[in-house]
Structures are given as structure tokens and as C-alpha cells.
Amino acid sequence: MRTPNRYRYTGLSVAERKERRRVALLEAALDVLAESGVEAITVRGVCRRAELNDRYFYEHFTSCDELLGALADYGLHARLLPDLGVRLTDAGSDPAKWARAATEATLSIVDDDPRWRHLIVNMTATPALRERRDNAVSLIAQLMQSAAEELLDQNDRQAQLTSIVLASGIFEVVVRWARGVLDIDRAQLADYLVDLLVGVGNIANQER
């Protein structure tokens, strides 16, 4: 059961109340997106779901497209990256463990909370989401490049090109899996991606 609004903000500072409303709007948008699709994302619909007055929407966003972009950022910075950081720290300098950590963190955000599947498969639906998709692929590629340079001692250009190819391909595979196009379960997909990353790393080591 939802907590009445008058109790949700008791004892909070102005900044804390504002941030809580922002998160409430993002979570509401994720709910609406999962239940009814991108077309159902409206100011009134999201605010109704968040149990907030419409004016609070414009406290944070100028449009629904901006809201969707912020939702993608929220998934990346509040969900994926913190989990990824913990997993990579535990993985240490072992390339196979690093590949497993990165793969499991990526798949977990899609699989552990089914609502995020609907965002992933709609990452080309609006200009803001397309921009976030490109940013996500670039970030994944940068992380892979850093790992290749540190763990595999690849040169900058080789690591950069390999990372871009892998990041783009893996992102598309995850999108297709999230859509249900691929007849494969999470464990099988994780094993495949880990084997792919480790295999590419082994080839790079042999060519040095």
C-alpha cells in the first residue's frame, strides 16, 4: 500500500523533498512504460501514477521526451553502474572474472526488474532515448577499452576498435533478448557473452 503523500515528505529538507519527487516521477514513468508503452507517457498520466500535482513535473522536466532521457540516465547511474562497480572490484584483474562481472551486471538490470526490459527495447523510440542509447554504447566501449589496455596490454587503437565493435554488438544482442526474439535463457546468454569476451581477449594476446 502506498504511503500517503503528507507522510512521505515529513521531516525532509526542501532539497530532499525535491529529489524524492523526482525519483517518484521516474519510477512512475517506468511503471507506465512497462504497462502501456511509450505512447502512454504523458504529464498527467505520470503525475497521477506518482500521486503528484502536475506542476511538480515541470519542477524537473520540460517534456516527456526529457523525462524518458532522464529515466535512461537513472537506470544507468542509479542501477547499472553501482552494481557493475561492485562486481568489477570483486573480479580483480582476472579477465574471465571481469567478463563475467560485466555480463551479469548488464543482464541483471534487464532481468531482475522486468520493467527495465521495456525501456531497453524502446531505446530508439524518441530523440532523447536514441541519444542515451548512443551514450550507453560509448560508455560500454570505454569500459571495455580500459579493461583491454589494463588487463590485456592492448595498444590504444586496437583496444578502441575492438571495444566499439563488441559494445555495439552486445547491446543489440541484449535488446533482442529483452524483446524475446532470441530463444535463449539468461544463463546461456551470459555464458555466450563471457566466452565471446574471453575469446577476443585470447586472440588479442596471441597476436601481440
From TrEMBL:
<feature type="domain" description="HTH tetR-type">
    <location>
        <begin position="19"/>
        <end position="79"/>
    </location>
</feature>
<protein>
    <recommendedName>
        <fullName>HTH tetR-type domain-containing protein</fullName>
    </recommendedName>
</protein>
<dbReference type="GO" id="GO:0003677">
    <property type="term" value="F:DNA binding"/>
</dbReference>
<dbReference type="InterPro" id="IPR050624">
    <property type="entry name" value="HTH-type_Tx_Regulator"/>
</dbReference>
<keyword id="KW-0238">DNA-binding</keyword>
<feature type="DNA-binding region" description="H-T-H motif">
    <location>
        <begin position="42"/>
        <end position="61"/>
    </location>
</feature>
<dbReference type="InterPro" id="IPR009057">
    <property type="entry name" value="Homeodomain-like_sf"/>
</dbReference>
<dbReference type="InterPro" id="IPR001647">
    <property type="entry name" value="HTH_TetR"/>
</dbReference>
<dbReference type="Pfam" id="PF00440">
    <property type="entry name" value="TetR_N"/>
</dbReference>
